[in-house]
Amino acid sequence: VSDAFVELFGRKQEGTWSAPGRVNLIGEFTDYNDGYVLPTSLPMEAHASLARREDDVLRVASAQGTPGGGERVVEARLADLRPRGHKGWADYVLGVAWALREAGHTIGGADIRVDSEVPIGAGLSSSAALECSVALALRAAFELDLSLEQLALLAKRAENDFVGVPTGIMDQMASLLCVPGSALLLDTRSLESRQVPFALGPAGLELMVLDTRVRHELGNSAYAERRRACEVAAAEIGVPALRDVEIARMGEALARLDSKELRMRARHVITEGARVLEVVRLLEDDSVAEIGPILTAGHISLRDDFEVSSPELDVAVDSALATGALGARMVGGGFGGSAIALVRSSDSGLVERAVVEAFAAAGFAPPRVFVAAPAATKTSPD
Ligand code: GLA
User: Fold this and answer.
1) Active-site residue among 34, 91, 111, 171?
2) pLDDT of 346-382, one tens digit each?
3) Residue 294 to residue 26: CA distance in whole angstroms
4) 2: CA distance to ligand 1 center in Å?
5) Between vectors from CA 47 to CA 192 and to CA 144, what angle results, nearest 5°?
6) Cα 335 to Cα 217: distance, rounded to the nearest angstrom
7) Which one, out of 9, 14, 148, 178, has a CA that is 20 to 30 A from the CA of 312?
8) Most distant CA pair in the chain: distance in Å?
9) Does the pLDDT at position 91 exceed 70?
10) Which ligand 1 atom sits nearest the alpha carbon of residue 165?
11) Which is nearest to 148 in space by CA: 156, 136, 130, 138?
12) CA distances from 65 to 73, 93, 135, 324 (A)
């Protein structure tokens, strides 16, 4: 990172700040319904290197910005930053500076270079990782008195109002608060959170990521549509958000909805909330292997009720389950991106081969498969 920074800006960075991508264990599309989520961080991170400037100019560059070419420097005066509804890498960086200023925080000009290991567009939260690394860099460089929760909200504002994607708060909170070996139980209404033990090694398990490498354009409009459907369903049921419907009263609540589609969407959100709490109970009870069927039930709900899966995601999940995965599900916004599979360490090679073969047989391009949380290194006692 350091050499490239010097090459670009002719001086050294003051520091480099990093924030990871995530996978969500369970709790999909619950964040914009004020509900619970349970993400865990990935070993891959985004890094932001920064040096302050004397003027009010931001100069930003990305190692991933111009594939195959030299890095392009995007320049903007702080006072001129305006949302343009773009979705290029620079907008995630500039958007964070914009959000900080909108909230009344004083920052000056800076040279910033970002470099990320998080696969882009794979449903692994590469954009939140980018925003959060930049938010951490700006907080440190300009000595802003902001908690991690406040930074997450500002990073979300950058994504919602500057880039123009109506996401919930899960990804930014995950990127800033997750710690390795744990999952983060987050109440997206109060933003209260706690770390839940997620130690796979001692149980002989691994969490695999099955990246379909498919990015469906449909994703953006469908995301906003689902969000709207959930708001309409909550209003028709007569609650502030679907989170407020207890699972024991689900039948009664769904009966108030006229449309079948709204009933399906609401049923996903309400049952998914219960699945998060059940997974947390099992993890805190040291029964990690037992969460598998709940993850799979989450996938079926996303596929059939929320209708955000894709043929590639279904093939990934089905072939992993057919070769012994304890549970598998799509993660993130859907219509492509990645699935996760909980597997016994001894089975991970088998599962990987099965998924790759199933993709080939279906005529899909090869997926990218990797282990998100490796089992602890086995050291022999002698
Ligand atoms: C995307 C969004 C999150 C969340 C998930 C679905 O990743 O960024 O806020 O809504 O989809 O759970």
Assistant:
1) 171
2) 999 999 999 999 999 999 999 999 999 765 544 444 3
3) 8
4) 33
5) 55
6) 8
7) 178
8) 67
9) yes
10) 8
11) 136
12) 9, 12, 19, 39
Assess whether pLDDT exceeds 90 at residue 88.
no
- For ligand 1, atom 8, the nearest C-alpha belongs to 167
Q: Which long-range contacts (CB under 8 A, 24 or more apart) does 374-379 make?
A: 374/201, 374/206, 375/200, 375/201, 375/204, 375/205, 375/206, 375/345, 376/199, 376/201, 376/202
Q: What would the two tokens of residue 92 be?
A: 């995630």
Measured in whole angstroms, how far is the alpha carbon of residue 282 from the centre of its chain? 23
171 catalytically annotated? yes
Ligand 1 centroid–CA 199 distance in Å is: 24
**Which among 2, 15, 110 has a CA at the least distance from the CA of 55?**
110
**What is the band of 304 on the pLDDT scale with cuts at 50, 70, 90?**
very high
The pLDDT assigned to 2 comes to: 58
Q: Which long-range contacts (CB under 8 A, 24 or more apart) does 83-88 make?
A: 83/161, 83/162, 83/163, 83/164, 85/163, 85/164, 86/163, 86/164, 87/163, 87/164, 87/165
Cβ atoms of 102 and 157 closer than 8 Å: yes
Confidence check: pLDDT of 199 > 50: yes
pLDDT in tens, 170-180: 999 999 999 99
Whole-model pTM over 0.70: yes
Using N-to-C axis directions, what is the helix angle for 148-157 and 89-102, rounded to 10°?
120
Q: Which two tokens stand for residue 205?
A: 């398990």
β-partners of residue 128 are none
pLDDT digits (tens, 9 = 90+) for 216-246: 766 688 999 999 999 999 999 999 999 999 9
Upper half-sphere CA count for residue 277 (Cβ side, 13 Å): 10
